[in-house]
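S.,

Sequence below, as promised.
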Amino acid sequence: MTRVYRDQYDYHGAVHERGYPRDDVLIGPQAAALRAAARRQLGVADDQALVLYAPTWRDNQAVRARAAGSADLLDLARAARRLGPGFVLALRGHRFHQTSLPPPHPDAAPVLDVTEHPEINDLILACDAAVLDYSSLRFDLALVRRPMVFLVPDLAEYAATTRGFLYPFEESAPGPLVTDTDGAVAALVDLPSLRGRTDAALTEFNARFHAEQDAHASRRVVDLLLAGPLAPRDDAAPGRDAR
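The prediction came back faster than expected:
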């Protein structure tokens, strides 16, 4: 982000890399208790696997300013039937998306709309896996080592004409890329296998992006602010732009 802010916003002031305070809770000592509480609140049983589906905003689907149609790349009804009641699907739509859920069925996974849930960290901790596309939630989910499946049938279009990327998407997607609901379900239905397939990628991802994440970023930021006027860092790791 240091490089991105300089490149994209022409920012030349001080940068102090101290980690991401919002994520402290995800790996702190209270994480297990928060996960259990969130699952109780959502009604997820101990023997059910919670899959978070969190599609991102697409400019080309906007119907007006700050509004878009349903996020329907994942066919929730089909996924729920194929996964069965041992799973729970939780839809976290972008706040500008319309959302709609399939009717409940006793032989299908329950489907929840958690778009308005007030705390995203609850959902990150509560879930056992996630279906994403280009959402930045992959960074938070990687930190807690949740296996992810990337449903990206429009990858070429998104990269070329919709929004594009600051760096190649595949370099920051630590999980299988699939193009349809059946591909996502095939990856999810055997979660132990998916965890095994993505474990090394998550380790590499966290080494690259989360070197400062140790549950103490908030303390470091507060200490920095209390120390007085911010000045350029002189103690940045080699290779980092710390102007």
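The CA atoms of residues 113 and 121 lie 16 Å apart.

Coffee later?
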